[in-house]
Amino acid sequence: MPQDDPICGLCGRPIPPTVPQSLHHLVPKLKGGKGGPVVLLHHICHREIHATLTEVELARDFATLEALRQHPRLARFIAWIRKRPPAFRSRVPGGHRKR
Q1: What domain of life does the UniProt record list for this protein's source (predicted)?
Q2: Reduced to 3 states, what is the DSSP secondary structure of residue 54?
Q3: Whole-number percent of the chain with pLDDT over 90
Q4: Is the dihedral of CA 68, 35, 22, 52 positive or negative?
Protein backbone atom coordinates (compact mmCIF):
# COMPACT_ATOMS: atom_id res chain seq x y z
CA MET A 1 0.00 0.00 0.00
CA PRO A 2 1.62 3.32 -1.06
CA GLN A 3 2.27 5.82 1.71
CA ASP A 4 0.79 9.30 1.27
CA ASP A 5 3.23 12.19 1.23
CA PRO A 6 3.21 14.32 4.38
CA ILE A 7 1.35 17.64 4.17
CA CYS A 8 3.07 20.99 4.70
CA GLY A 9 1.75 22.68 7.84
CA LEU A 10 1.86 26.14 6.24
CA CYS A 11 0.67 25.80 2.63
CA GLY A 12 -1.27 22.53 2.89
CA ARG A 13 0.38 20.98 -0.18
CA PRO A 14 1.90 17.46 -0.13
CA ILE A 15 5.66 17.22 0.44
CA PRO A 16 7.06 14.67 -2.05
CA PRO A 17 10.10 12.67 -0.88
CA THR A 18 12.31 14.44 -3.46
CA VAL A 19 11.57 17.93 -2.08
CA PRO A 20 13.56 19.46 0.80
CA GLN A 21 11.56 19.61 4.00
CA SER A 22 12.29 20.90 7.48
CA LEU A 23 10.83 21.10 10.95
CA HIS A 24 9.77 24.51 12.20
CA HIS A 25 9.74 25.16 15.95
CA LEU A 26 6.55 27.13 16.60
CA VAL A 27 8.40 28.90 19.41
CA PRO A 28 12.00 29.45 18.26
CA LYS A 29 14.60 27.40 20.14
CA LEU A 30 16.47 30.59 21.05
CA LYS A 31 13.31 31.93 22.69
CA GLY A 32 12.50 28.91 24.85
CA GLY A 33 11.02 26.57 22.27
CA LYS A 34 13.62 23.79 22.50
CA GLY A 35 11.68 20.58 22.97
CA GLY A 36 8.43 22.39 22.13
CA PRO A 37 6.00 21.71 19.30
CA VAL A 38 7.34 21.47 15.75
CA VAL A 39 5.60 21.30 12.38
CA LEU A 40 6.82 19.75 9.12
CA LEU A 41 7.10 22.24 6.24
CA HIS A 42 8.40 22.50 2.70
CA HIS A 43 11.85 24.04 2.99
CA ILE A 44 10.68 26.95 0.79
CA CYS A 45 7.78 27.63 3.20
CA HIS A 46 10.10 27.46 6.22
CA ARG A 47 12.54 29.89 4.60
CA GLU A 48 9.72 32.33 3.86
CA ILE A 49 8.67 32.33 7.53
CA HIS A 50 12.20 33.19 8.66
CA ALA A 51 12.69 35.74 5.87
CA THR A 52 9.51 37.49 7.05
CA LEU A 53 9.64 37.40 10.84
CA THR A 54 12.28 37.78 13.53
CA GLU A 55 12.75 35.22 16.30
CA VAL A 56 11.16 37.68 18.76
CA GLU A 57 8.11 38.20 16.51
CA LEU A 58 7.74 34.44 16.05
CA ALA A 59 7.88 33.79 19.80
CA ARG A 60 5.64 36.72 20.79
CA ASP A 61 2.94 36.88 18.11
CA PHE A 62 3.27 34.01 15.62
CA ALA A 63 3.67 30.80 17.65
CA THR A 64 0.74 29.04 15.92
CA LEU A 65 0.11 27.98 12.33
CA GLU A 66 -3.10 30.04 12.35
CA ALA A 67 -1.21 33.20 13.30
CA LEU A 68 1.47 32.54 10.67
CA ARG A 69 -1.16 32.06 7.95
CA GLN A 70 -2.77 35.40 8.86
CA HIS A 71 0.41 37.47 8.56
CA PRO A 72 -0.10 39.62 5.40
CA ARG A 73 3.18 38.69 3.67
CA LEU A 74 2.83 34.99 4.52
CA ALA A 75 -0.82 34.99 3.38
CA ARG A 76 0.29 36.37 -0.01
CA PHE A 77 3.09 33.79 -0.17
CA ILE A 78 0.67 30.94 0.64
CA ALA A 79 -1.78 32.10 -2.07
CA TRP A 80 1.13 32.21 -4.54
CA ILE A 81 2.78 28.90 -3.57
CA ARG A 82 -0.52 26.96 -3.59
CA LYS A 83 -0.65 27.55 -7.37
CA ARG A 84 2.69 25.75 -7.78
CA PRO A 85 3.18 21.98 -7.96
CA PRO A 86 4.21 20.28 -4.68
CA ALA A 87 7.75 19.72 -6.00
CA PHE A 88 8.26 23.42 -6.84
CA ARG A 89 11.55 24.82 -5.55
CA SER A 90 12.87 28.35 -5.66
CA ARG A 91 15.13 30.62 -3.69
CA VAL A 92 13.30 32.90 -1.29
CA PRO A 93 14.19 36.51 -2.06
CA GLY A 94 15.26 38.81 0.73
CA GLY A 95 17.49 36.55 2.77
CA HIS A 96 17.38 35.87 6.49
CA ARG A 97 16.14 38.47 8.96
CA LYS A 98 18.29 39.47 11.91
CA ARG A 99 17.61 37.62 15.15
Answers
A1: Bacteria
A2: coil
A3: 70
A4: positive
